[in-house]
Design a protein that fits this description.
Alkaline Phosphatase, subunit A; eight-stranded mixed β-sheet; four-stranded antiparallel β-sheet; 14 strands; DUF229 domain-containing protein; GAG_Ulvan_Degrading_Sulfatases; transmembrane; PEA_transf_C
Length: 626
Amino acid sequence: MKSVHNNIKKWVLSLLIPITILATDLGFRFEIVKGLELNQLLFYFASILFSLLLYGFFLISLLNLYRIKPIYEFLVIIISAFYTIALIGSYGYFQYSGIMPNFFVFSFIFQEPYNSWTLFRAGLSFVSILFFVIVFFVFYYSLRSTTRREKFRFFKWTYPAVTLSVILLNLFFHNNSRFNDQIFVADTNSVVFINRNVYNLLTGDRLGSAGLQSRNKPKLETLANKTKVNVLLIVAESLRRKSMSLYGYNRDTTPYLSRCFSSASKGDKILFKNSFSNSSSTLISVPSILSGISPEQPVSLTHSSPLFWEYGKAVNLSTFFISSHSFRWNNFEGFFKNAGIDYLWNKETSGNSTFNDIGIDDRKTVKEFKRHVSLLKKEGNSFAGVLHFNTNHFPYFIPKEYEFLPVGKDILAPYDNSVRYLDSLLEDVFEFLEKENLKENTLVIFTSDHGETIFEHGYIGHVESNHIETVSIPMFFYIPKSLRSQTRDQILKINQDRNVENIDIIPTIIDFLGIRERKDIAPYQAKLEGRSLLTKIPTDRKIFIANNNETSLYRVGLSFIYKNLHYMLRLNKTSPTEELFEYTNDGNETENLWPKLSEAKRKEYRILLKDCNLCSDLYSTADISL
C-alpha cells in the first residue's frame, strides 16, 4: 500500500507542472478552445505537445546534472521561476486584457524594460506576491522531488530525441507564430515569443515588418524670398481628448487651455471637437501626421512624400524638430535624416537622461525650444518647426511639484496629472510666443499622435486597442490675423463640428502657405488622402484607423469612424470579431451593436472599405469577405 501511495505521489509530482498549465488554460479559455477550428485545434494540441516535451527536456537535464549541486540548484530555481511567471503572467494578462501575451507584448518587455517593470510594480499587491511565492515553491518542490533521485532509468536515446523534438517544434512555431499567437498554452507561448524577440535582436528581422526606413528625398523647389509667417506644429504623445477639461472632462486638467478657448470669439482659436488619429501606434501615426499619408496607402508613399519641414523649406523657412523622444526607437533617426530639418534636437543629441518612458523631461525640451526660436528671431529668420512632447506616455511620470491629484487608489490620477502638466508646458510656450511678439505672425497647430486606454475595455496603453479612447485626440489651431479671412473663418467654424483627422494637417498647412498650385507641390498634394481644413469637410466622411501595415505589424485589426458610428474589426483575439458602437451617445463604447444587425446591414458597413487594399488583406486574414 505504501509503495502504491509513493508511486501515485511520484507521478503527481512529476506531472504537476504540465497538468497545472493545461488545467489553468482550460479553466480560463475553455469557451475559446471549444470554438477553435480544426487547423487551430491542431496548433493548440501541438503547443501542448511542445509543453510536455519542453518539460521532459528540463527534467532529464536536471537528472543529468543532479550530482553537480550548484548548477542543479540554480537551474531548479530558474525553471521554477520560468513556469511561475509564464503561468501567472500569461493568464493574469488574459484575465486583464482578454488576449494572451503576443509578440508585441514580449517586444515591449524587451524594448522598454523600464516601463515594463513600472507596470509590473504597479500591479503588485500583498495577495499577488503571496500567490506568486506559493506557486513558485510548489513548482520548486515538484521539480526537486522529481529529479533528486540519483537512479532514474531512461533510454540513452531519450534525451537527444526529446531535445531534437523541442528544437524542431520551436522552429515550427517560430515560422507560424504571426497568426496563431492566441492559441498556444502559456509556456509554449512564452518560449515562442521570447525566442522570436531574441532572433529579431540578433538578426534585425521585424517579424515581416519593414519598420521605418530611410526616405527617398522628394524634389521641391525653394522660393528666393522668405515667407514672413512662422508655422509651429506641436505634437503630444498619447494625449486623449477624454481626459481634457477643454473637451468637457469633469476634472480641471487643462486650466490654461480652457481659459484660452473661453475667449475664442475673435476667431483666432479653432477647437476641433471631433478629431481622430488614424492609428493608435506611434510608429504609424507620427509619420502620417508629418507626411499626410494614411496607413491604408502604400508604405512607399510614406517614404517618398515630403514631410512637414520640406514644405517649410519650399517657402524658404528655417526648420527645426525639437523632441523629448529617443530617435533610436524604430529608426526615427534614419527616417528623419534627410527631411530638410536645419536643427534637430532629441534625447540623444541633448545628452539628457531618461525621465518618462524613453524620453527626457519636457521642461528641458521647452527650454531648448525657447532658446532656438529666440536665436532665429535674432537672426531675422522665420521658421517651420515641430515641438514634440512625451509627458502623457505611460508611465505618466511628471515632476513631483506638478501633481495636483494624489496618486494612490485613484487609477486615473497619474494620467490626469500628466495632462495638467502638459497644460502648464503649453502655457509656457504660448507666453513665450507672446513675450517675443511672435504670436502675431505664427500659425500654431496642436494635435496628438493617438489617445490612451486607462483600464477601459480591460486594457492600459494604446497599441492593442482601437477603441474610441485610443483614437479620439485633441486638435486646435491658433491662427494669426495675417492668415485669416472671412471665408476661412466661416469654413473653419463649420469644420469644428465635423469629423477631422491628423492627416488633415499637412494639406491644411499647404493651403495656409499658399503653395497648393505650385507645379512641384501639386503631384504630392494629389496623393494625400487628408483634406485641407480650409475646405468644407463632408458630413459622411470615413476616417480609417489601423495599426497594421508594412511599417508596423501590430495584429490589432482596423476600424473606421463614419458619422456617429465606430466600427472595429479585431484581429488580436483567437477568433476575429466585429464590433459597432454609436460613440457619440455611448462615449465609453459599452454597447456593441453588431450582434443585433442583420447580415445585409453588416455588409453595408463592410462595403464602405471596398476601395481599401489594406482592408482587403486584413479581412482575408479574418476570413471575412468584403
